[in-house]
Design goal:
There is one protein chain. By secondary structure, the protein is an alpha+beta fold. The protein has helices at 54-68, 110-117, 125-144, and strands spanning 10-11, 16-24, 28-35, 38-45, 79-85, 97-103, 108-109, 147-148, 157-159, 165-167, 174-175. It contains three helices and eleven strands. Strands 1-5-6-4-3-2 form a six-stranded mixed beta sheet, with no helix packed on it. A three-stranded antiparallel beta sheet has the order 7-9-10. The radius of gyration is 17 Å and the shape is globular.
Length: 191
């Protein structure tokens, strides 16, 4: 990704209206919100410094941004941009703000559907196959771009109210630079 192209992904923090918290992740919280009249999800980075060095955290966020900026598919959550405010003066440090902005998938994640809502019955074969097909289509697209997700789980599959499937959370994803993958660390969410 060329640095010059990053400007097209910039969202002014004042253009976002943040709503209720809908989930929590390794780097912070996910909020429902509004941007340009559209419902969005805002992945707000709030735990900077708690999961390692600033350098490592920002390297990981930059890597996620580079991957998200490349992906556009109906079964991959849409990435709209980044809203950021970096304080210049020490007295503004509490106003630090960094958020990734995505389409809002307004139903739930697959984990909640299977374990909490218990909305799928044994006889619901076609809806289950539609979910599996959506995951397979999204992951095929991701792999065609030589990207390994490395954290695909039921929590990282979102569903819209129309039951459209969206693969999300590319925080551990890696771009393949050669024809094989040699992992150096264990990754993914605990089962």
């Amino acid at each position: 990704l060329r640095l010059a192209s990053c400007a097209e992904w910039r969202i002014e923090p004042g253009d976002l209206q943040q709503g209720n918290k809908v989930d929590e992740g390794a780097f912070g919280s996910i909020f429902a919100g509004c941007w340009r009249g559209a419902a969005v999800a805002i992945k707000r980075v709030t735990k900077v410094g708690t999961k390692g060095s600033y350098e490592r955290i920002f390297r990981d966020l930059r890597r996620e941004f580079e991957i998200l900026a490349e992906l556009k598919h109906p079964n991959v959550v849409s990435f709209y941009g980044i809203a950021a405010f970096f304080p210049v003066r020490k007295e503004e440090d509490a106003k630090f703000s960094l958020g990734f902005v995505f389409e809002l998938c307004d139903f739930c994640n697959l984990y909640a559907l299977l374990h909490q809502k218990r909305a799928l019955k044994k006889k619901d074969f076609l809806p289950k196959m539609r979910i599996v097909e959506g995951i397979a289509n999204g992951m095929t697209y991701v792999h065609q771009h030589r990207i390994l997700h490395r954290d695909l789980s039921s929590r990282n599959v979102l569903l819209t109210s129309a039951m459209d499937v969206k693969v999300c959370d590319f925080g551990l994803a890696r771009k393949l630079e050669c024809d094989y993958y040699d992992p150096h660390t264990i990754s993914g969410s605990p089962a």
